[in-house]
Design a protein that fits this description.
It is a lipid-anchor. Belongs to the bacterial solute-binding protein 1 family. It is found in: Cell membrane. It comes from Hydrogenispora ethanolica. One of its GO terms (cellular component) is ATP-binding cassette (ABC) transporter complex, substrate-binding subunit-containing. The chain contains 18 helices and 13 strands. By secondary structure, the protein is α/β, with parallel strands linked by helices. Helix 2 packs antiparallel against helix 13, helix 8 crosses helix 18 and helix 12 crosses helix 13. Strands 4-3-5-12-6 form a 5-stranded mixed beta sheet, sandwiched between helices. The longest helix is centred in the middle third of the chain and has 19 residues. The protein folds into 2 domains: 188 residues, Periplasmic binding protein-like II (D-Maltodextrin-Binding Protein, domain 2), CATH 3.40.190; 198 residues, D-Maltodextrin-Binding Protein, domain 2 (3-Layer(aba) Sandwich), CATH 3.40.190.
Length: 439
Amino acid sequence: MKKTMLIGLLLLFVLSLGAVGYGASNDKIVVTPQLIGNENAKIEITWQPVPAHSLGDSNKAKVAYLMQKAKEWAEKHPDVKITPIQTTIAINDSMAKILVQAAEGRAPDVAAIDSYIFPNFAKYAQPIDDVMKEKKLNVKDWFPFAQKVMKPAGKTLGLWYTTDVRILFYRKDLVKNPPKTWPELFKLGKQLKDKGYDTLLYSAGRDENVTMNTLPYYWGLGGELVDESGKPVFGQGKNREAMISYLKFLKNTVDTGITPIRVLNYKSDPEMLGELAIGKAAMFVGVSNMANQLRSVIGDRFNEQWDVAPIPMAKRGVRVSASGGWVSTIFTKDEQKRKLAADFIISLYVDNAGMEGWCKAGGYLPPRKSVFEKAQFFNSDAFAQKFKKELQYSRVRPAAPVYPAISQEIQIAISNVLTGKASPEQAVDDAWRNVNSRK
């Protein structure tokens, strides 16, 4: 009899827990690439991250960080489930698909958008100023290039959560004073060449990375790729002259021997790592995350031998770089989902703890200035602080629909000029004709 009563009491206890919602909350929360939260939660938010920033990424540090943060958020919001949407690593295809979905009113509730094309999505994005205010975030804390994208007019429409910057890496045991101008670069280059070093490496193969790494030279000459309406202008007037000068500069680095012609084999910066590890390269232009990548290859020698400086420009007094990154934006018009989706992204990537943790795990730079100042991981890193300074002078690629075609033609022009297949003038005119023929 006593045994029967005990079983009955235990059953009543379990049922009572379910009645108050305990069993429907944290004990059923899961965090997987397919679901974050309780599968029975009443509120569903669809989330399309870029694959490299998702729970399905191969980077263990990033996934571990995301799983912990997603779990913490889900536990605080047991009535909400996040359904991640898997997408292709072909970024252009993915972005084009989301843009079509947004135009048709069926975009994911929240999605990651490549920063330079975010302006094309702005008219579909929902404002998040109220959530930012609640979380004590101010758009003025972001670097200037990001502010213009996030808040194109009177409302904040996106959250720029990761970035990078192009910069000159140099061997401080070989280069006492890093060159600030092209003439200084060529003068130093001759000295280093005579000692058996490759003065300057850079990626020159056919890839978007190549355009990004070399555009600062063009911008530094005052050149623009498109006008305010998005119409191509790089082949006209002063922009054409700037493009010719930019290609002549690259050609001269090869012709003088300070840059080996084999840079045409490099489509991305990491492809230079093997050569950099050998120790015969004095300088290279690359993206900021090359610091971590080169450090992982040569260990302590990186901090002992390498430093960074602004990219040399045609004339003294000019300073410009290029940045990329990702912006999360809310598409849902459901008021409850809008606030919850923004809260989720802010917790994951954007608030003080989120941005420090995410950028540390992924090797990214924070697009918020205060994170460089307050986060111990960044304020104690000498390279991070120099990257921060360069971000103040950074620009982003134009969001014009014609930009991908322009970028492709720039890559072809660089290849043809470096190999001697075309003069800089001919290469620019060919690129101009080809871009305009695609209209």
